[in-house]
Design a protein that fits this description.
InterPro entries: BldC-like, DNA-bd_dom_put_sf, HTH_17, SinI_DNA-bd
Order of helices and strands: EHHEEH
Strand order of the largest sheet: 1-3-2
GO molecular function, one term: DNA binding
CATH class: Mainly Alpha
Domain Helix-turn-helix: 11-59
Low-confidence stretches: 64-69
Structural class: alpha+beta
Pfam family, one: HTH_17
Helix content: 25-40%
CATH architecture: Orthogonal Bundle
Number of domains: 1
Strand content: 5-15%
Organism: Kineosporia babensis
């Protein structure tokens, strides 16, 4: 059993990040390799992403305009 401290920041999987951005999980991995998004490696070698950083990046993406034809 693992215990998390109350101030531990939530981490997201590549699939969770991909769902937020509506892209493939491989794209998220490419972003991390390119330095656009920092990742944390688990003991098993899997990537995890800080939720606050992902949300900040998501907030910076311009939303599609509904009135575009």
């Amino acid at each position: 059993m693992t215990t998390r401290s109350p101030d531990a920041e939530p981490l997201l999987t590549p699939a969770e990040v991909a769902a937020l951005f509506r892209v493939d999980p491989k794209t998220v991995t490419r972003w991390a390799k390119a330095g656009k998004l920092s990742s944390i490696r688990t003991l098993g070698g899997h990537r995890r992403y800080r939720e606050s950083e992902v949300r900040a990046l998501l907030a910076g993406i311009p939303q599609q305009r509904l009135d575009e034809d």
